[in-house]
Amino acid sequence: MKKVNLDNVLSPTGHYTPSVIYNNIIFISGQLPIDPVTGDKKNGTIEQEAKQTLNNLESILIQAGSSKEKVIKVTIFISDISFWDNVNSIYADFFGEHKPARSIVPTGKLHHGFKIEIEAIAAIN
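-> structure tokens emitted (125 positions)
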């Protein structure tokens, strides 16, 4: 198992690694709508938070030698089930024709009052 060294990304405050690679598969821990360079929390509309979170996810994929087209599985946690349609729309725009396996899980409150958290598994090469 190998940790992914990420450029311009703040270290996590919890006991976890943002992403690890095992057998050419990258496992990306839950990403939040936080600016990865400044650490600014980007609380906003569900659409704004979803876009920031997906951008964070894509940044990790690229730095690990993968891409959003190689994502196999995505799990999306949302604080309110009423966000489902909005998140689905932003997600569809982000992935385009690529349709990885996906779960959307309504959870209630998320860390820092965010509305969304996204984790993913993707192939490398």
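The chain is about 25% helix and 30% strand.
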